[in-house]
Amino acid sequence: MNIFWAFIIGGAICVIGQLLIDLTKLTPARILVAFVVIGCILGGLGWYDRLVEFAGAGASVPLPGFGNILARGVKKAVDERGLLGVITGGFTAMAGGVTVAIIFGYLAALLTSPKAKD
Predict the structure, then answer these.
(1) Interacting residues of 60 by C-beta distance below 8 A, sequence separation 6+
(2) For a Cys staple, 39 with which of 58, 64, 79, 104, CB 3.0–4.6 Å?
(3) Please, what is the Cα angle at 17 between 87 and 117, to 5 degrees?
């Protein structure tokens, strides 16, 4: 049943993004930033963690999940280091994920022949 809810919640997040692209004049970049900010806000309030418990990867993998992890990292760092944690917490929490994304992006560029869109 967890796979079902992961699919439904993850799909719903994607549908919302697609509807925003199709029905508004917002650029995809603004929509992506809005998703991360919404994830930060919901994560800061402690609401997004409940959604992650319910939907698993369907909620933690999309962009709001990225914002949620940033918020959790900041909360943890503030508890440990005080005000300095506001600056360092998000970087520490996402360092592994961002590093993996950079490495695999680099490998993909080496192994393929990327071309500009015409």
Answers:
(1) 52, 68, 69
(2) 64
(3) 90
Neighbours of 109 (CB within 10 A): 10
Judged on CB neighbours under 10 Å (0-12, 13-18, 19+), 83 is exposed
- Helix or strand or coil: residue 39? helix
What is the residue whose two structure tokens read 């071309």?
A: 115
Distance CA 81, CA 87 (A): 10
Residue 86: CB atoms within 10 A of its CB come to: 13
Would the pTM of this model clear 0.85, i.e. be above it?
Answer: no
